[in-house]
Every structure is written in structure tokens, then in C-alpha cells.
């Protein structure tokens, strides 16, 4: 498996997509403060999914914010967006300045420890803007994040540092799966914000 050298902002995928890793974009002094504010202020709730016809309640917690009370369906369950908080708008602005893109919603994930992760999937729901940027901002524990090509099965991984930004766009979701692998090495929480564009 390739572990990408992330010294420069560039595409970490070798073909069939574009994933830019920016490294830390939040100042060291603000990283811990944002993390604690997000832990306290976000309306965290356990996620629900329907898998093989069964309703599953995840250990991971999620929350969903946006410009409007968007409805958004994934894993066969429908979620409703809450209005932006001041903090989320501030973070959205920082992300937009880095990627040069705009977003109208944010899905937040809280992984309490390394036991919690996310299985292989792509973000290709029909409500998402096609080929749009999905920008992922990370806080808390540093975790490995992996991509796997749907046909060649090639994998690429990156360590998502606290305060770092990763931008997935172009053909990425059509050709690559991604996941957050579980790990025994992490026993503290990770918070991840994924800014997206919904086309209702
Ligand atoms: Mn995803």
C-alpha cells in the first residue's frame, strides 16, 4: 500500500480522480479550541442506516447542517439539516478559501475511538452535486484514511492530521471507494466535518 507523501498540496490519486491533501490549515492554537467547541456545541446523535433490510444504529455519532433544512438520503435513511452555527460558518469560510469551492451543507462525524470507523463506500448519492468537491476537515485523533480503486483495487492511504483538510472532487466518487479503517492504536475521539453541495 502507498502511504502518500503529503509535503505539497497535490493529487494523492494516481488516476481516475482528484483528491488534494492540504495538510494542517488551522493554526495550532485554534485546533484544540475548535475540537472542544465542536464536541460540546454540535447536536450529535447516533446515526441510523438500513443494511440488508435491518435498521442499524451506529456507535459513531453524526450531525448535519446546511443553508436550508435540506433532506438528504443515504444508507436508505433520510436526514434533515440544522441551520449553520457561527462556528461552522467560520470553518466553512476557511475551507472555501483553501479549496476555492463553495458548499451549502456539512455532515459531521464523531468517532469516539479507534473501534469506530467507516466501511468502504463512495459519496455518490443522487442529492449531491455531480463531481462536486467534498472537503473534509479533521480534529482530534489522527486517523488513517484509505482509497481503493473500484476495478484495479489499487489502494492509497493518507494520515489525516488534526486541523487538516482533504478535498475529494472530479471523478473520484465514480472510480474510488474510501474508508476510515478501525484501529487498536487510537483510543481518543476524532471529529470530521465534510462540506458538500446538495442539489435539492
Ligand atoms: Mn464518505
TrEMBL record:
It holds the Pfam family 2OG-FeII_Oxy_2. Residues 102-199 form the Fe2OG dioxygenase domain. Keywords: Dioxygenase, DNA damage, DNA repair, Iron, Magnesium, Metal-binding, Oxidoreductase. InterPro entries: AlkB-like, AlkB-like_sf, ALKBH3, Oxoglu/Fe-dep_dioxygenase_dom. Its cofactor is Fe(2+). GO terms for molecular function: catalytic activity, acting on DNA; demethylase activity; dioxygenase activity; hydrolase activity; metal ion binding; oxidoreductase activity, acting on paired donors, with incorporation or reduction of molecular oxygen. PROSITE patterns: FE2OG_OXY. Signal peptide: none annotated. GO terms for biological process: DNA alkylation repair. This is Alpha-ketoglutarate-dependent dioxygenase AlkB. It comes from Pseudotamlana haliotis.
